[in-house]
Amino acid sequence: MTQSKMSKVSICGCGWLGLPLAKHFVQLGIETWGSKQAVGPALELAEYGIHGVALSLPLSLELPALSPPITSFFDTDLLVINIPPGRYAGAVEEWVAKVKRLSAMAKQVGCRKVIFISTTAVYGECQGTVDEWTEPRPNTLSGKAHLAVEQYLRTEWGNEVVILRLAGLIGPRRHPVRYLSGRQGIENGKDRVNLIHQEDCIAAISQMAVRWPHHPVMHLAAPQHPSREDYYQQMAQLAGLPLPEFINSPERNSKVIDAGKTCEWLSLRIRHADLLSERPDI
């Protein structure tokens, strides 16, 4: 990795992951900018020491049309793109176009480096152990769209972009057991889970900002991969929720995301490694 001095970071998308990430950079003494879609929530970022801007995509590529705050947002040492596609009809295609426009604006204004937060959904049809060199095989619209954006950004930014593919996200007020609790007849209970805690995501991105990695694509998942049945029943029990019930499905060679090399490259120790022992925060 190359030591890099980041004096300014911009987070595009200050939501569940982006806001605590921005707060983390503020605590490090780095000038931190963050975006929200509406003016009110953007202004509220100031209470955390974050320079907030209202960023509604797509943007005009004409510089005179940009407000000074938006120009300042993109004139940054590091831009973290952390905006997932919506769930409405046509949202995925629209999202791809928006991220491309975002990239073009960042390059035009003078952004130096980019981290794109992607998803391990790009490995859709892969089986068995999946490491950082496994070829993606997306089988959903979202997975295919993320892979298309990854490829576009790598073409546009070369060595100045890093792709970070995140497994299923868990952390404060976010856990899949909320939606599985009490359900019956759930299939594929023997498939392995691939999850990563918010705190470990922030630690990884922070390491990238401090020491820019030479590896363009990384991914992150906790090293423990219990079966879905074992994991979600344990989480429901720890949370005091009705247990989900799984049907007896045959065991498959399901995906297991191995992030060992990413952790080695970033000198990262996964803090939330023992998935079965932590009570879910719901």
UniProtKB/TrEMBL annotation:
This is NAD-dependent epimerase/dehydratase domain-containing protein. Coiled coil: none annotated. Pfam families: Epimerase (PF01370). Residues 97-175 form the NAD-dependent epimerase/dehydratase domain. InterPro entries: Epimerase_deHydtase, NAD(P)-bd_dom_sf. It comes from the Bacteria. It comes from Photobacterium gaetbulicola Gung47.
